[in-house]
Structures are given as C-alpha cells and as structure tokens.
Amino acid sequence: MIGKLTGRVDYRGEDHVLIDVRGVGYIVYCSDRVLASLPRNGESVSLYTDLLVREDLMQLFGFPTLLEKEWHRLLMSVQGIGAKASLAILGTLGPEGVGRAITLGDVNAIKAAKGIGPKTAQRVVIELKDKAPGVMALGGTLAQASGTVVAEVEDVIDDTPAPKAKPAPKPVQTSAAAQSDALSALSNLGYAPSEAASAIAQAAQDAPEADTAALIRAALKLLAPKG
C-alpha cells in the first residue's frame, strides 16, 4: 500500500498530477481544490495517498491531509459513491465542509457537488452521520498535518539539487483542530458525541474563523434548553 508520496511536481493534468519521486513518476488523481493548491512544477510536494486496485486498473488518489483522506475513505464506503464522486464532494466542500454538511444533515450541500443527485446525497448523510463525530475528533491530532500541503522534505530528492522548500509556517490551530478540541470539551461536560458534534458544526458554519473557546461558547448556547 502506498500511503504517502514526497517528491517534486513534474506536471499536472486536468484531474491529476505527476509526482517525480527519485526518478519514478507517480500519477496521482486529486480534487479540483487540491490541484489548485499544489506548488508549481519543479517544487516539492507531499501528499497522503489512497490506492484503488481493480482487476484491470490501479489508481492513486492524493490528499493534503490525513483528515481529507479519511473522509475520502468513508465517502467511498457509501453505495453509489466512487472515487470520482468522492473527489467531487471533497473538492466542492473541503474536509471540514463535508463534516459540517453530514453532521447538520445538509443534503443540499452534498448535492452541490458535480454528479451527486439528491438520493445519493441523502444516502451520504444518513450512512455517515454517526461516524462524523469520530472523524471530527481527528482534527486535533492532525492539526500539524492540516496546515499545508508541503511538509518537511529531503534537501535532495535525486542527484539533481531540488528547489529549497519555503520555511514551514508556525503551527496554528486550524478549523479542524478547533472543532476537535471543542468536541472534546463538550464531551467532557457530558454531552453525547452526536449532539455535541451537531452544535459545533452549526457554530463553525456560523463563524468559520472561530477559535476553540468561541466554538464552545456558541455550541453551549445552541445546546441550552429552549424556553
């Protein structure tokens, strides 16, 4: 199983990129969103990958974070969702957006992805709703991986000097990490994972830039008894 590739961008196509890893080229299929975020040709790149093996076909799919790769794996488990449909959903919503849509039961958000009909979108929400809190919780442990496509790479990938990678930015708390920490805090307060995840997803949708503390405050207001 090929789980991750680190190399240099050789060229990119309409739906894939060729990554040169020590002289061996790997064709990796990516969503539109991921392709747009990749560095220029000749620059270093690191992608987590998922290998699809069929009788007459082998394809690699690439993701900038493990969180996105996990959503791809879960989306593929839904009847009617293949690799192309999964990439379409992730390309339209991003991993955090997929989590929010599924947690909130937002069928229309899933349906906005190219090639996804209303029945398939509804099936995604129904089948993955109970799994969403667990995936959201991954955000805290994967915070470092969520910030950038390019991580630390070797100074020399092959005999030809590789372009120096830009210094990695200082770690910041991403939206996924903030949601994960807020989910953990609400769970510690005794809220069920499903209701906590739903409140946090709603709070994150209302305030995309909110940090952990702000998400907790907003979620607690949503969970407070009405009347």
UniProtKB/TrEMBL annotation:
A Pfam family per the record: RuvA_C
Name of the protein this chain belongs to: Holliday junction branch migration complex subunit RuvA
Quaternary structure, from the entry: Homotetramer. Forms an RuvA(8)-RuvB(12)-Holliday junction (HJ) complex. HJ DNA is sandwiched between 2 RuvA tetramers; dsDNA enters through RuvA and exits via RuvB. An RuvB hexamer assembles on each DNA strand where it exits the tetramer. Each RuvB hexamer is contacted by two RuvA subunits (via domain III) on 2 adjacent RuvB subunits; this complex drives branch migration. In the full resolvosome a probable DNA-RuvA(4)-RuvB(12)-RuvC(2) complex forms which resolves the HJ.
Domain Holliday junction DNA helicase RuvA C-terminal intervals: 178-224
Region Domain I, annotated ranges: 1-64
One term of GO molecular function: four-way junction helicase activity
Notes concerning its domains: Has three domains with a flexible linker between the domains II and III and assumes an 'L' shape. Domain III is highly mobile and contacts RuvB.
Function per UniProt: The RuvA-RuvB-RuvC complex processes Holliday junction (HJ) DNA during genetic recombination and DNA repair, while the RuvA-RuvB complex plays an important role in the rescue of blocked DNA replication forks via replication fork reversal (RFR). RuvA specifically binds to HJ cruciform DNA, conferring on it an open structure. The RuvB hexamer acts as an ATP-dependent pump, pulling dsDNA into and through the RuvAB complex. HJ branch migration allows RuvC to scan DNA until it finds its consensus sequence, where it cleaves and resolves the cruciform DNA.
InterPro entries: DNA_helicase_Holl-junc_RuvA_I, NA-bd_OB-fold, RuvA, RuvA_2-like, RuvA_C, RuvA_C_sf
Originating organism: Thalassobius vesicularis
Domain III, as annotated region: 174-227
Subcellular location: Cytoplasm
Annotated GO CC locations: cytoplasm; Holliday junction helicase complex; Holliday junction resolvase complex
Keyword DNA damage (UniProt): yes
GO BP field: DNA recombination; DNA repair
Keyword set, alphabetical order: Cytoplasm, DNA damage, DNA recombination, DNA repair, DNA-binding
Domain DNA helicase Holliday junction RuvA type per the UniProt entry, residue ranges: 1-62
Listed Gene3D superfamilies: 5' to 3' exonuclease, C-terminal subdomain, DNA helicase RuvA subunit, C-terminal domain, Nucleic acid-binding proteins
Family: Belongs to the RuvA family.
Source species, domain of life: Bacteria
